[in-house]
Design a protein that fits this description.
alpha/beta, 2 domains, seven-stranded parallel β-sheet, three-stranded antiparallel β-sheet, 42% helix, 18% strand, globular
Length: 251
């Protein structure tokens, strides 16, 4: 299972400190989801070797309108393993679920945003995961926590009804805000999410990572088809061959 985090300067802890705590809590990886205007500086390979945990590059895009969001997606899609769009605005929410290039719609219920069955259908059709963020439930109290619980229950019901893919996160901004999977499962029970759903949502970060890394590899042609190196024949480049996972030949 993976967890998605904000690191310094977007958060309070370094990527290395977050990785250490996440590994102690039993996570297999962390997704560094800093906003585009606050990128973190870190060495993925060094942290992986030191703490035995995967570190995934990502960006959470914040934009005032869909046109700007589209431009940011184009700028980051090839460089980042996972691309999230920070929701909470009706126009941004609608834009994000309509874009196959977007991996995750984050915070759809924040601000003036909202989510409905129509957006759920678009998210499912385009393979956009919707985030069930436990941040507000974990860190707020009183009336704000009650509102957060209500929003999360409503969102969870909509995702269930439409069979919409989702991810789960505590959206930690420091290593002190990280929670072990079992702790998140306990919080999930309050909003009607059983332990298996929490685990599924945490595991989905890993599935996205593996899928996108494959797509970004030099051997990827299209889903189910990979380019393979072959012995060079006269007048033939070594990388002209392609291998398909299906029975048909790749064109």
């Amino acid at each position: 299972m993976y967890e998605a985090v904000h690191a310094r300067p977007d958060g309070d802890s370094t990527v290395a400190r977050l990785a250490l705590t996440a590994s102690e809590y039993g996570y297999d990886g962390i997704v560094v989801r800093n906003h585009g205007d606050s990128p973190a500086s870190y060495d993925c390979e060094r942290i992986r070797e030191t703490y035995g945990i995967d570190v995934v590059t990502a960006v959470e895009i914040r934009a005032e309108d869909p046109a700007r969001a589209s431009g940011f997606i184009g700028s980051h899609r090839e460089d980042q393993t996972i691309v999230l769009v920070h929701g909470g605005d009706p126009a941004i929410n609608r834009f994000a679920v309509e874009q196959p290039a977007v991996d995750v719609l984050a915070h759809p219920m924040a601000g003036d945003g909202g989510f409905n069955h129509v957006l759920g259908q678009e998210a499912a059709r385009n393979g956009v995961r919707v985030e069930l963020s436990l941040r507000r439930v974990l860190r707020q109290s009183g009336g704000r926590r009650v509102q957060a619980l209500g929003d999360l229950r409503k969102l969870q019901e909509l995702l269930d009804d439409g069979d919409v893919p989702f991810v789960v996160s505590a959206d930690a901004r420091s290593h002190l805000q990280l929670r072990a999977p079992r702790e998140l499962a306990a919080v999930g029970e309050v909003v009607g999410l059983d332990a298996s759903s929490i685990e599924e949502g945490l595991a989905e970060w890993q599935h996205l990572t593996e899928r996108n890394r494959e797509r970004q590899s030099d051997s990827f042609v299209e889903p189910g088809v990979r380019r393979i190196e072959t012995a060079s024949d006269p007048g033939t480049d070594a990388d002209d061959g392609a291998d398909s996972d299906s029975d048909g030949a790749a064109e």
